[in-house]
Write a structure and sequence with these properties.
The complex is a heterodimer of chains A (about 260) and B (about 375).
Chain A lengths: L23 H15 L6 E5 L15 E4 L5 H11 L4 E7 H7 L1 H10 L4 E6 L34 H7 L4 E6 L3 H13 L4 E6 L15 H11 E3 H5 L3 H4 L3 E7 L14
Chain B lengths: L1 E3 L8 E6 H11 L4 E4 L6 H13 L3 E4 L3 H13 L4 E5 L1 H6 L1 H9 L4 E9 L5 E5 L4 H6 L8 E3 L4 H18 L2 E7 H4 L2 E6 L2 E3 L33 E3 L14 H16 L2 H4 L2 E4 L6 E5 L1 H16 L4 E6 L1 E3 L3 H8 L4 E6 L6 H7 L4 E5 L8 H10 L3
Parallel strand pairs in B: 3-4, 3-5, 5-6, 6-9, 8-9, 14-15, 14-17, 17-18
Antiparallel strand pairs in B: 1-11, 2-10, 6-7, 8-16, 13-15
Helix pairs in contact in B: 1-2, 1-7, 3-5, 11-14, 12-13
The chains are: A alpha/beta (about 260), B alpha/beta (about 375).
The structure holds iron/sulfur cluster.
């Protein structure tokens, strides 16, 4: 984390807890830059997270109100806080297993309710903290500690899922696309209603080393190579698309201008 | 502090309400302004009333997707400054156990009304039971203390709803109103007071929100948006909320304080009532709806000249051990009727030296006075 973002971190924080090469550190930096550019009033920003590596992005690092909850329920906790105090700019930051496996029900219902909050789902395609077990987002065939012969199941397409549940803004970017990601986070926060951003954030420790992506640099390069835009995806056959990840916005409407959430709001 | 019962609240006076309706009105009277819940028999009338009454008093209502989410939303709202509650019954109460543990660990004031039905599992949804007593005490994992109250009348559904919120605010702990279906669905006359006592949490943000320096073990609790940069976690944490997941001393200190702040205040929390106890040889200990039948039987037997009295437990957790021990001293025997297979019986036995006998009924029906009359008489001659 560069020095200029120090104002957003608690003084007690010396370093992040993430493994070398983990995507979550990049996401952390991009998120703070997005917030900094928007000049959000930090005393009104609430970060809610669940359990897992990604849940540690805001807690305890960010100097704001942070609610580090139980596994899978971050969105439900955020629902109560936001409904009671609509002034709170509510950001949920958690992992794919937390938000979409154990917590999938709360996620789709919050999207259906169209609560005014932004959910950042750091998708590392595996359960990192507990040692690399298969998740509902693990690609078919990938090796994990609970799928030694390769994952026999299909992964969720989280963006399609949440868009179908009624989210106002839905986007997917990788941590290797920091500028696009930053813009998406800002758009999500500005959206009046439910916003969901899937952030592909590689896990070299638990996913990479079992899937020929042990070297963090290789992991990032591979992610970059697999990402294609929606327009590029259109010109590919289904089998060509299978190994790629489509980035971009999958639902977008109803954004107001930056001022609406700035210091004057 | 007391709060006049104005702005959208029912005017003082006599009403004819069900227990569930009265519990909702009690919550509103003490300032409950957030409800999240999920439908379940036999508690749904509480939620249905809150759905139209909360907007009238400027509060917020949401029906969640399940009971886990309900209690999580209640906790989120409580940290945003709400006096928040949910209501449920057995199966929903089971689902709430993990967030209940989170509320204990993060010292979140809130109220859960569990209108008990006949379990286990789906059991008999519309019939009565008192099978959740031990679940309220031990349901979530880990060591902790909690407060649970046992109402026996519609009036007490109101009064104890008020008390539950006040205890939650005072001790920063979840409080369970352990009602039974029979009291929830009972309709009788109730008098709404012109004022109720209201306790509010201390929102001071200069002192640590999870501190151990507070003389009575209850630290202040600012809300989200107060500018306190709150750090709330269900992991073991120090006094400012920083996770300390490998520090034995922080773990020991926190877990001990969470229990002590309740146990050290048993005299302030616990409440019992006694009836006909002068020179009673036999003491009946009862709670909830069963105490109504038991009292009827005891009064009748006094009329027959038998030396029998009754203690009614208004607080179940922390168990009013001292009061039971004091009142039980020198008695020939203690009788405990329950709508379960013996949950409070063991606690009573721990407190007294004389023999304890129990009457268990788990047929989904209340224990009728005639049954207790016969059972107590046989043990009092
Ligand atoms: S286990 Fe994976 S996701 Fe967790 S910190 Fe390490 S690299 Fe990141």
């Amino acid at each position: 984390m560069s020095r200029d973002m120090n104002a957003y971190l608690r003084e007690e924080i010396q370093r992040t807890p993430f493994c070398p090469g983990c995507g979550h550190g990049i996401l952390m930096g991009v998120l703070l830059r997005a917030i900094d550019e928007m000049a959000l009033p930090m005393e009104r920003v609430l970060f809610v997270s669940g359990i897992g590596c990604a849940a540690w992005i805001p807690s305890p690092h960010f100097k704001a109100d942070t609610l580090h909850t139980i596994h899978g329920r971050a969105v439900a906790f955020a629902t109560g806080a936001k409904l009671y105090n609509p002034e709170l700019i509510t950001l949920v930051v958690s992992g794919d297993g937390d938000l979409s496996s154990i917590g999938g029900n709360h996620l789709i219902h919050a999207a259906r309710r169209d609560l005014d909050m932004t959910v950042l789902c750091a998708n590392n395609m595996i359960y990192g903290m507990t040692g690399g077990q298969v998740a509902s987002t693990t690609p078919e065939g990938a090796e994990t500690t609970t799928t030694p012969g390769g994952n026999p199941e299909r992964p969720f397409d989280l963006c399609r899922l949440v868009a179908a549940a009624g989210a106002r803004y839905v986007a997917r970017y990788g941590v290797v696309q920091p500028l696009l990601l930053k813009r998406a986070i800002q758009k999500g926060i500005r959206t009046r209603g439910f916003a969901f951003i899937e952030v592909l954030s590689p896990c070299p420790t638990q996913f990479g080393r079992r899937n020929r992506l042990r070297d963090p640099a290789e992991t990032m390069k591979s992610l970059k190579a697999r990402l294609i835009s929606q327009r590029q995806a259109k010109s590919l056959t289904e089998s060509e698309r299978a190994s790629r990840i489509v980035y971009g916005e999958f639902a977008s409407e109803d954004s107001d201008d930056l001022e609406g959430r700035g210091r004057d709001a | 502090m007391s709060r006049s019962r104005t702005e959208g609240l029912l005017p003082p006076g006599d009403y004819y309400l069900s227990g569930n309706e009265a519990a909702a009105e009690g919550a509103l009277a003490v300032g409950c302004d957030f409800y999240a819940g999920y439908p379940i028999t036999p508690s749904s009338e509480i939620m249905e009333r809150m759905a139209w009454r909360l907007p009238e008093v400027g509060g917020t209502f949401v029906q969640m997707e399940d009971e886990i989410g309900s209690l999580c939303a209640v906790i989120g709202a409580a940290w945003a400054g709400a006096k928040a509650m949910t209501a449920t019954s057995g199966p929903g109460f089971s689902l709430m156990m993990e967030p209940l543990g989170y509320a204990v660990m993060t010292e979140t004031p809130l109220v859960i009304m569990d209108v008990q039905r006949a379990g286990p599992c789906t059991g008999q949804a519309t019939r009565v039971g008192a099978g959740d007593i031990m679940q309220a005490r031990w349901g979530a994992h880990g060591d902790y203390q909690i407060i649970a109250l046992s109402p026996w009348s519609v009036q007490e559904m109101f009064d104890m709803a008020v008390q539950a919120f006040n205890l939650a605010e005072r001790f920063r702990v979840p409080v369970v109103l352990l009602a039974e279906e029979a009291v929830g669905h009972l309709r009788e006359r109730i008098t709404l007071p012109s004022e109720v006592t209201v306790i509010q949490r201390d929102r001071d943000k200069t002192r640590p929100p999870f501190g151990s320096e507070e003389p009575d073990g209850v630290p202040p609790m600012p809300a989200f948006g107060d500018g306190a940069d709150l750090l709330v976690t269900g992991s073991t944490h120090d006094e400012w909320g920083f996770r300390k997941t490998e520090d034995p001393e922080v773990q020991r200190r926190l877990v001990t304080r969470l229990s002590r702040k309740i146990l050290d205040h048993r005299a302030e929390i616990c409440s019992v009532e006694t009836y006909c106890m002068e020179d009673a040889q036999v003491m009946v200990v009862a709670y909830g709806f069963t105490a109504r039948s038991a009292l009827h039987a005891v009064r009748h037997l006094r009329g027959e000249g038998l030396e029998v009295g009754m203690m009614r437990l208004r607080t179940l957790w922390p168990f009013p051990e001292e009061a039971v021990a004091r009142m039980g001293e020198g008695r020939a025997r203690v009788l405990v009727p329950e709508m379960n297979l013996g949950q409070i019986q063991g606690e009573v036995q721990k407190a007294v030296d004389c023999p304890v006998e129990a009457y268990h009924q788990v047929n989904g029906e209340v224990i009728p006075p005639s049954v207790l009359l016969k059972w107590i008489r046989e043990r009092s001659l």
